[in-house]
Design goal:
Layout lengths: L2 E3 L4 E7 L4 E11 L2 E9 L12 E6 L8 E10 L5 E10 L13 E5 L15 E3 L14 H4 L1
Antiparallel strand pairs: 1-3, 2-3, 2-5, 3-4, 6-7, 6-9, 7-8
Length: 148
């Protein structure tokens, strides 16, 4: 009777009764070509098998990652000299990969209008929405250059 352990463990996504998800490794031992023993371990400690009876489902493939939510807003800061500086504020919300709950604090980054150069706010109390530029009604236009 030949017995061999599958050398490459498979990633699986295990879901607990409370909805918490965990990526585990599934180890399979074959006996004469038939899978006879399944064992599971964490990704961090693949040598130690764990009890998976508390999980309500185990499906093939690693648990899907929840991408961060990034909001981009154009803001203006009123400066001491009476002018205003326009900039972009990116607010990033990350999520707990097991529960899906949003993590706090949110990450706030400000950039100049190129979206790359960091912008430093001088006085957060003077930050708000940028005022709209009023357009005059000039009828039907056929060229964007006449409008912008």
């Amino acid at each position: 009777m030949a017995c061999c352990k599958k050398t490459e463990p498979l990633h699986v996504c295990a879901t607990a009764a409370d909805g918490t998800r965990s990526t585990l490794l599934q180890h399979i031992v074959y006996n004469e070509g038939i899978a006879s023993i399944h064992g599971y371990s964490t990704v961090d400690d693949p040598e130690t098998l764990i009890d998976v009876s508390a999980f309500t489902s185990i499906v093939g493939g690693a648990c899907a990652l929840i991408a961060p939510d990034v909001e981009k807003t154009k803001l203006c800061e009123g400066l001491a000299d009476g002018t205003r500086a326009e900039f972009f504020r990116f607010i990033t919300t990350n999520f707990d990969q097991s529960t899906g709950a949003p993590l706090t604090p949110k990450i706030i980054n400000d950039f100049e209008l190129d979206g790359v150069t960091p912008y430093t706010v001088v006085d957060e109390d003077n930050v708000g929405e940028c005022p709209c530029t009023a357009l005059t009604n000039s009828g039907l236009q056929t060229d964007w250059a006449d409008v912008l």
